Amino acid sequence: GKVDGAKKASLQEKEATIGKGDTVLEEFVSIIPLKRFDAADLSKRQRASSIDIGEEAKTQLRNYLTNVASMYQDNPFHNFEHASHVTASVKKLLTRIVNVDDRNGLSTSVDDVNLVDMAGHSYGITSDPLTQFSVVFSAIIHDLDHPGVPNTQLQKENTRSAQIFKKSIAEQNSVELAWGMLMGKEYEAFRACIYHTEDDLRRFRQLVVNSVMATDIVDRELQALRKARWETAFADTPIRDASLTSDDCKATIVIEHLIQASDVAHTMQHWHIYRSWNEKFFMECYAAYKSGRADSDPSENWYKGEIGFFDFYVIPLAKKLESCGVFGVSSHEYLSYALSNRGEWVREGERMVEDYLAKYGEMIKEQ
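User: That's the sequence. What structure does it adopt?
Assistant: Structure tokens below.
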């Protein structure tokens, strides 16, 4: 009892201090050490479907998600619906990592595959429930309190959050708010379902930091770092630094690209889904321009800009999902939809932008 009490007190002390001092971005690391499980551990693991976390934890989880939803601003694009859409994509891709095809010599039954680490196929992601939960958690909180304008505008306006965080402002703010709330006494039973040890708490925090920071795709320094790490870790020819080609390094990179792809999942899904979210994002950007929170009229370059986004970000990202070899058929599906949507946008995009402007005008009249 005394040992358990001491461990609990130590964990509570760590909860009170973790993430304090440094900014969220300063906590970012290039390689996250994942927890490794041997075959004996995996064979004893209970099926996720058989575990009941209890009514108290369920209630706290529902309350937490309700509060998270309420902390999203009423933006046309960066809202709780977007967070839910991103989370659904993350869950789908994580499931596809587990549910690999027969060519890997594994069953396609999720229950069967959950108990193995797939001989390195997923770089350890599938055997670690905390890693999977962390990415799903990151997806639902990644744009919490998003102001509806980019970080560059927050810097120009010198907002309070810009003064604190300097870079990746909205992303760091989201982590700070969501984490601060999670550490509240009212979520103690929920937290106990996520981690029991200080090591797991630290790993959970690190995974959340890296995952949410990965959604800042505008910061050139961060993007250049990720690109260099990918090219090194998944190089065709061996390199000397083994740490950069380790499973931990590859797992970290795959997780970051998984959430990046999910953040723009609408571009890699059916045309009508892409069209709907593209309109929402335009409305958000155009509203910012009309309210004096953007320097240029987004309608002037929206058509060409979207083609560039497909060519220089979305399609290369979809190709990376395919080349890393852990997502099975989903990666091909994402790339196929991205290419198809680009072609459709080239044909229809200019007319669609005109429609967006007309629709915005009608919305203003109604107000």
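The chain has 16 helices and no strands.
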